[in-house]
Each structure stands twice: as structure tokens, then as C-alpha cells.
Design goal:
This protein has 285 residues and is mainly α. It is built from 5 helices and 4 strands; from the N terminus they run αααββββαα. The chain has 2 domains: 63 residues; 189 residues, f41 fragment of flagellin, N-terminal domain (Up-down Bundle). 67% of the residues lie in helices and 6% in strands.
């Protein structure tokens, strides 16, 4: 057996092993402290890229759910306003029917006309003053557009619900081969014949408002269905991201125990290799 002191080979080997153990131990501690298997691109570059893409999908879908929820809220406000207009129109039906009969005097028709005029005015006020988030719902732009996306080019959906302008001169569309806007703005109840003509228009307006409410309800149901689908996507994408990013705490804990022991034995081995060099001095005694 020869004794050499030029290089402490065993010490270098022990030091190299200890250095690798330290690096692995640091990685394990990072995983345990963060709960993530991937804490840097060096841990798993491909996995990190996939997980970041999934995170972007989840983030976009989460906001899209909020967009759809806000859209449903706006449509509910619109439907509530139209419901009140329907109530006013039903009252107008009563007034027009009463004014149409011959037992009502002209003075009484004047009183009925005054209330009818207030109904016309209030319908216009509702159409002009109904807002959501500071924006007029029934405006010249005429539509609510809700944008939903998962941040990818192919995962985009747009739901458009036509609302249009609502006032006493525009109360939905009448049915027929050539639909036209229903107006009660020029109607009055001053005479029996005028009241009967007004009654026809009022009934058409009620049907037009009902059709508009039906369109709003369909749009609301579509947004609700889209929300359910997106919530399911969020759950599934989050699960996929979790399977890539999340650390297996049982495995990491076992690895921590192993690496802690290796660290201690590595330090002990390095200490022993250094002591072997000291034994050469005994040859000089």
C-alpha cells in the first residue's frame, strides 16, 4: 500500500458526493416549502411550459365566467324594466277599453287620457334611465355583447343579445311578414274611436315587449349554460395543472430523510478522508 499526499482523491470524491447531495436537498426543501414539484425551469422545463399555459387558460376562463355573470346581471335588469313596462301597458289596456265604451263622458275620457299620457311618459323614462354599471341598457347601440375566452385562438365565444332602444315610440316589433316597430306615442284616448285604435297598438306593444323579453331570457340562459361549461373547464384544467406542478409530499418527505442521512454520512466521509492524510505524519516520527 502506497501513501500519497499530492491529491486527496478520497476527499475529492466525498466532497463531490456531498455537493450533489446538498443540491438535491435544496431542491427537496424548495418543493416541501412551496408545495410545488417545479420551482424553476431547471426542475422540468417542458412541464413548466405546459403548466404555465394551463394557468393562462384558467385565468382567462375565470374572468370569462365573471363576464358572463355580469352579462346575466345586465339582462336581468333589462328584463325587470321590461316587466314594469308590461305592467304599464296592461294598465293602458284597461284605460283604453274603458274609454272605448259609450257610457263614458268626454270629461271622463279626458281624465283617462291624462293617465294614459303619464304612462307613455313613464315608458320612455324607463327606456332612457335604466342603466347597468353606469351604462344605458336600452341605447342606440342596440346590443349586449359578452366575450368569453380560454386565451387560445380557438377557445373564444361571443354571445350577443339584441336590446335596442325602448320608448313609447319603439316597443318591440309587431308580428307579420314585414315587422315594424310598435309605437303608442301618437295614440290618445280622447274619443271612443281613438281609444279603440290605441287598444290595437297597445296589444301589439305588449306582444312586442314579450318577444323582447323572450330574446333576453334566451340570451341569459345561453350565458348561464356557458358559465357552467367554463366552470367545468376550470376544474379540469386546474386538476391537470395540479398533476404537473404539485409536489408529492410523501415522496418529498421520504427523499428529505434520505438526503439528510446522505448529507451526514458525506460530511463524516469527508472528515475521515482528511484524517487519512494526517496518518502520513506518523511515518516521520
Amino acid at each position: 500500500m502506497s501513501f500519497q499526499i499530492l491529491n486527496n482523491i478520497s476527499g475529492l470524491q466525498a466532497q463531490n458526493s456531498l455537493s450533489m447531495t446538498q443540491a438535491s436537498l435544496s431542491q427537496t426543501l424548495a418543493a416541501l416549502s412551496s408545495g410545488q414539484r417545479i420551482n424553476s425551469g431547471a426542475d422540468d422545463a417542458a412541464g413548466l411550459a405546459i403548466a404555465n399555459g394551463l394557468q393562462a387558460n384558467v385565468t382567462a376562463l375565470t374572468q370569462s365566467v365573471q363576464n358572463a355573470t355580469d352579462g346575466v346581471g345586465m339582462l336581468q335588469v333589462a328584463d325587470g324594466a321590461l316587466s314594469q313596462i308590461t305592467t304599464l301597458l296592461n294598465r293602458a289596456v284597461t284605460l283604453a277599453t274603458e274609454s272605448s265604451t259609450g257610457t263614458v263622458s268626454d270629461a271622463q275620457r279626458g281624465a283617462l287620457q291624462t293617465e294614459f299620457a303619464s304612462i307613455q311618459s313613464e315608458i320612455t323614462n324607463i327606456g332612457q334611465n335604466t342603466t347597468y354599471n353606469g351604462q344605458a341598457i336600452f341605447s342606440a347601440s342596440g346590443a349586449l355583447t359578452v366575450y368569453m375566452s380560454d386565451s387560445s385562438g380557438n377557445g373564444t365565444t361571443t354571445v350577443t343579445v339584441n336590446l335596442g332602444t325602448v320608448n313609447d315610440a319603439n316597443l318591440g316589433l309587431s308580428s307579420g311578414t314585414t315587422p315594424t316597430a310598435v309605437s303608442i306615442a301618437s295614440n290618445d284616448l280622447s274619443s271612443a274611436s281613438d281609444a279603440q285604435a290605441a287598444l290595437t297598438n297597445i296589444n301589439s306593444a305588449i306582444a312586442g315587449i314579450a318577444a323582447l323579453r323572450g330574446s333576453i331570457g334566451a340570451g341569459s340562459n345561453q350565458l348561464t349554460a356557458a358559465t357552467n361549461v367554463m366552470n367545468s373547464q376550470i376544474t379540469n384544467l386546474s386538476s391537470a395543472e395540479n398533476s404537473i406542478m404539485a409536489a408529492d409530499m410523501g415522496t418529498e418527505t421520504a427523499r428529505l430523510s434520505q438526503e439528510s442521512i446522505l448529507q451526514q454520512t458525506g460530511i463524516a466521509a469527508l472528515q475521515q478522508s482528511n484524517q487519512l492524510q494526517q496518518s502520513v505524519l506518523k511515518l516521520l516520527q
